[in-house]
Specification:
The chain is of the alpha+beta class and about 725 residues long. The protein is built from 18 helices and 29 strands. The protein has a seven-stranded mixed β-sheet with strand order 3-5-1-12-9-10-11, sandwiched between helices. The longest helix is centred in the last third of the chain and has 28 residues. Bound molecules: dioxothiomolybdenum(VI) ion.
Amino acid sequence: MITGQPIDRRDGRQKVTGAARYAAEFQVPGVVHAVLVQSTIAAGSIDGFDLAEAQGMPGVLAIITPDNALKLSRNGGVRQAITAPLLQDNTIVHNGQHVAVVVADSLDRAMAAAAAVRVHTTETEAVTSMESALGQAYPPKNFRDGRRPADSRRGNPEAAFDAAPVQFEATYTTPVEHHNAMEPHATIAAWDGDSVTIYTSTQGISGAQGTIASLFGIDPSHVRIICPFVGGGFGSKGNTWPPVALAAMAARKVGRPVKLVLTRRQTYTSNGYRPETIQRIRIGAGSDGKLLSLRHDGISNMSMPVLGEFVEPVALATEMLYACPDVAVTHRLVDLNLPLPTYMRAPGEASGVFALESAMDELAAELKIDPVELRLRNYAERDGHENRPFSSKKLRECYEQGAAAFDWSRRTPAPRSMQDGRTLVGLGMATSTYPVNRQPASARVRIMADGTAVVQSGTQDLGTGTYTVMAQLAADELGLPIGRVRFELGDSRLPKAPVSGGSMTVGSVGPAVVAACAQACSQLIGMAVADRGATWQGVTPGDLRLRDGAVVGPRGRIGVGEMLARRGVESLDFEADAKPGDEQKQFSLHSFGAQFVEVHVDPDTGEIRVARYVGAFDGGRILNAKTARSQLVGGITFGIGMALLEETLVDQASGRIANSNISEYILPVNADIPDITTILVANDDRNANPIGTKGLGELPMVGVAAAVANAVYHATGVRVRDLPIRLEDVLA
Ligand code: MOS
């Protein structure tokens, strides 16, 4: 089996040598450059433009404003009705909103002219802080795309809380955060008549194809999206954000291919962010720590509704993570003059589990119960919200193996009880969980005369290993060494696959790849039986298998090349679709994990260092031990950033993002991250999908922030409920 082995990323060499081509690097003859002009006010309207100076500057080809912008279709297929930033009207709803696009024959000239565009505006009062607008909080209109209500309850949580011997209540807050993918969003759009080719950095080429087709009123077959590599997305490239359409609009206007690359600063205003949350947790418990009532009320910030709707689903894990008879959760929104928020790695769970797992730690401390023991006492054997069995759940193994590797038993319970010299030592833990998602996907395998195979699906590789693990699955199914299988993705002309979000690429595309290869296998075996005829008399397909480019059986072999030659073809294509069955109705589908962290705190300066980390995860079957570990290390690193460093700061007066660069938006670097021990608990979940995987993209960052906060409490005795945890918090 090649699947499961820790083989190197197949695109690794291309990436480190610079051969991997990213969206902005495609060489398109005659390309010209577009630069966005952005609003400097957060609310109001555009009265007009003074374009005289900019229009007279050298090389300027067009200045597109709401006055002369192509009218785009606002209906059908567009997931988020992003209209205002597409220059369709004069409304301004956030600072940094696109108000014009300047096109010139060079990037420098476009930048210079963009700086010379004068925008006349009427400013109205902006709402820029959640606290000031909490009175206007409202229920979402379209939670989870209308698939379920935003609130849920079972039993009577209020009565159960009132009757509970132990009552706990606290509010937790998390800030706005940005994805900060290494590759900024970039698009090159080139029209040929009524067809457009778009090179863009996206997590979803099929979504981009549909969105552009819909906005421009053309058939999706006239839109080709190309994206062989993505330099990180983390959710920010899941939607097709306005700059993609603006590049296409500009290209149409000037009749030449147009390149539009966001500046780092613009990636803070053009493509979403993780919204701020305010979360209240109420727990009623017995003195034995058994949960009797659980309530999680989440509020997250929205933009103005004209841009769409996005809800941070913070409380969904609270519905299913622990055994508890009486549970209620709510989600509310507050409109602010900020850009539209979006998915960011582990949307909902990352923020929500920080609150829930901090609260569980507080309960454990109050009851003097070991934090792992408290979780085991409330272990959910089935999903109490869906009232279904889990497709598989190895969370107990995660706690056990994680605790053993971490040596959790050396932890002494009292805060400030563990010191190393003058350094305060804290040990904390938290649970992780993330839903298992899957959507329909298609794949094609092309068998070549020399026995090699090209496998194709219109999916994406965000740097996560799609190229590699899909080739592994195909190689095993086709009986080929991996070197004889090529996997192609990132072109909307390939068979359709879903967005690479929600940790579902492997679970969606993998089964399609396996199905297409299995089809190739059985057809080639059928051909072999037919071709060998009487000489293989008595041989049944069950006796045969595909091995190294030939069908092999008890009476010899026949090469794929020979079979193709007999049919006068150079290759054979096999295509298959794979889609979820009724597993969503039968099972509750979740991946799980346990996070363990040791922090060292300097008692004089408050400096917090993460000293040791162990994460143990049940992500189902593991297709590649190396790419899986990379996902885990990346997710945990993301979580440590969330815990201690990351925060987008909005200037309350102007609604402007003050730290829109990676020198002032603090991200963890190597020096902040210790050696991370990762454990993959053995599992193979065929209830989840035919290849047994559950997803690893988001899971490892869930619970990290709580584990760190819990460790900081254990080290210092200071409970920090507001992320990120700052030095001054622990000195208080
Ligand atoms: Mo992920 S935030 O679903 O790209």
